[in-house]
Amino acid sequence: MTTAHRPRWRDSRRPLARFVVQPVARFLQVEAAGGVLLLAATIAALVWANSPWSAGYRGTWDAVVSLGVGPFHLAESLGHWVNDGLMALFFFVVGLEIKRELVNGELANRRHAALPALAALGGMVVPATIFVALNAGTPGARGWGIPMATDIAFALGVLTLLGRRIPGSVGILLLGLAIADDIGAIVVIAVFYTEQISLGWLAAAVAGLAVVTVMRRAGVWYVPAYVLVGAVVWLCTLESGVHATIAGVALGLLTPARPGRRDVGDVSVAERLETALHPWTSYVVIPIFALANAGIPLSTTALRDATSSRLTIGVVLGLVAGKVIGITSFAWLAVRLRLARLPDELRWGHIVGMGALAGVGFTVSIFVAGLAYDDVLAQDEAKVGVLVASVVAAALGSALLLRATKRDTMTTRRD
């Protein structure tokens, strides 16, 4: 394709295309494909956990794996290595995505950021409120953070299936909302799901982050050096009592998101790392996480207990009803108060549909369930709620988005 006939957004010499549109397009593409693998891994986990080999499923992830370097020795179950180790890499990529959006993306412009940020706030506050209202005074109330999450991989996977029948702005707005949602989830995990803190280890982790900052400003570009310091920060964060995934986010946020003099081809360190690691987290880390955590017993007794559990009902209502109500109402208020503007090609029906689709919480919801409850039964009840809510939200969001687009098309034709 010649330059003259190349679509404008593909021309890397244009700043908007180079630093905003192309990275977002790549991100959406990888996330959508990763959603398919995530679904496959979830089905595999459910089949394995409910098969004659179900004991092997639990035994595999409960198996203790020991790692030692010099005087340091860590012994954790394989499931914990996945949740504390591999997921730190996932959250590192999340940190890179947040940094990119804050510097070059939708969240860089205050007026553009207002709509997804305020919609995400509503999509966190209302679901949590619904959950607490149903579980107040019970041990299950600790899981109020579960229905706050949005799984961008699954949600974008659904949008991909809908194809060109849905305006492209829906995906961009959903991405901005999910990034803002990730920020909220990270704060919730760091502040509310950390029980005991070792100040010495935490100080060591902060010192490690300071070393990364000094290295960056001194112009150190040797990647293995950052990997070594990053590993130390992860270990110190793990030992401090703060969940180790927070170390990944912090390191991602410290990564330069603007090209420097030594960056080749005007590609920043953050973009190079995100391009290299994002496929690994989407195609390997998240499917392994789903395989390790989505294996829920679905016996008749377990399902009956879940349907009568306020915990499960709170998760389902929070994700299905709370998300659409919170996102739509806060978006409406933002536009009404002139804090934000609705994209030209979108109508309120699209916002309602997007709000419903954001109820696909899955990955982070299951992750928070593991942090909120030590009791396996409570975890399983929460996970059943997440699975049911995600299926319902995907179907409802798809139907509402198709309906909104159809009505918009019919209105345009009449005009």
What brief labels describe this structure?
415 residues, mainly alpha, Na+/H+ antiporter like fold, two-stranded antiparallel ribbon, 2 strands, 72% helix, disordered N terminus
Termini gap: 37 Å
Output the number of helix runs: 15
Poorly predicted spans: 1-13
Structural class of the helix and strand makeup?
mainly alpha
* Helicity range: over 70%
Q: What is the C-alpha radius of gyration, as a whole number of Å?
A: 22 Å
CATH superfamily: Na+/H+ antiporter like domain
Q: What is the mean pLDDT?
A: 82
Structure report:
The protein has helices spanning 15-49, 54-62, 78-103, 110-135, 152-162, 168-192, 199-217, 223-240, 245-254, 269-293, 300-307, 310-336, 348-357, 362-372, 376-414, and strands spanning 64-69, 72-77. It has 415 residues and is mainly alpha-helical. The chain has a single domain (14-194, 243-414), classed as Na+/H+ antiporter like domain (Na+/H+ antiporter like fold, Up-down Bundle), CATH 1.20.1530.10. Strands 1-2 form a two-stranded antiparallel sheet. A hairpin with a 2-residue loop joins strand 1 (64-69) and strand 2. The relative contact order is 0.16.
Itemize the secondary structure elements and their pairings:
Elements (H helix, E strand, L loop, with lengths): L14 H35 L4 H9 L1 E6 L2 E6 H26 L6 H26 L16 H11 L5 H25 L6 H19 L5 H18 L4 H10 L14 H25 L6 H8 L2 H27 L11 H10 L4 H11 L3 H39 L1
Antiparallel strand pairs: 1-2
Helix pairs in contact: 1-5, 1-10, 3-6, 3-9, 3-10, 4-6, 4-12, 5-6, 7-8, 7-9, 8-9, 11-15, 12-13, 12-15, 13-15, 14-15
